[in-house]
Amino acid sequence: MLTPATWRNVLLVLLSLAAGCVDAVGYLGFGEVFVANMTGNTVLLGIAVGQADGEAALRAGTALGGFICGVAAGAILVGRKRERPLWPQAVTAALAVELFVLAVFAGGWLLFAGSEPSGGTALVLISLSALAMGVQSSAVRRLGVPGVATTYITGTLTNLTEGAIDWLRTVRSPKTSGEDDEELPEPAPPSARGLLLPADVWFAYGTGAVAGGAAQLLWWPMGVLLPTTVVATVVCVAVIRHRRDRR
């Protein structure tokens, strides 16, 4: 029987998988623009401005704007951290909104854009996908899991590496009683088990990118359908668990 914390971690990994897939599909389908990784988009925007590439600057700026709007919407949906559950109902509600946006994104791409969106259609799709990723970022942040984010992996990878180094130091040089006992206690370093979730999130994001890239090459509709299906699975599982908790 999986514990509530394990369920939460599994769902976080699935959300990271979806984000990696959306990012890869967006980068390949929209002319090299990220829809989840805003660090990369900021760099792309800077490059476009520096090279006077108005079209590329518009794509990157659209993604940044959509993501910011998504974070703002997610923050409104999840509210302040007051609930005690590991997975509050407000987070599920926010992810349901993300699912709706992703469904519109996927449907719009499949029905109106074809395999290579362009012009205004591409900008609308960029906005929708970035909006969905912004909502997801805010919802995951509301869970308060230290060192874990599902849409921007730089921070997750940094925390994973730092945690691993701290853990290795503890294993190799355990603190002994002595003069150091008079010093203020330091925060306990993460355990080896505590490093698994950041590692899984990072790996899932990369796996999602692999899936998105392969889908764009072999059968592009799967690239937009896969993340929508994954987020739908997360929402369904969360709703089922909320109902069980009420009983």
Overview of this protein structure:
This protein is an all-alpha fold. The protein has one domain (about 20-170, about 190-245). The chain contains 8 helices and no strands. Helix 4 (about 90-115) runs antiparallel to helix 8 (about 220-245). The two termini are about 15 Å apart. About 40% of the residues are buried.
Oligomer: single chain
Percent of sequence in beta strands = under 5%
Q: Strand pairing plus helix content: what structural class?
A: mainly alpha
- Tell me the number of structural domains: 1
Average predicted local confidence, pLDDT: 86
The value of Rg in angstroms is 20 Å
**Number of DSSP helical runs:** 8
Instruction: Calculate the terminal CA-CA distance, rounded to whole Å.
Output: 17 Å
Number of strands: 0
Stretches with pLDDT under 50, minimum 5 residues: 176-182
Please estimate the helix content.
over 70%
The SSE string, one letter per element, is HHHHHHHH
Tags for this model:
247 residues, mainly alpha, 8 helices, 0% strand
Short description:
By secondary structure, this protein is an all-alpha fold. Helix content is 74%, strand content 0%. It has one domain.
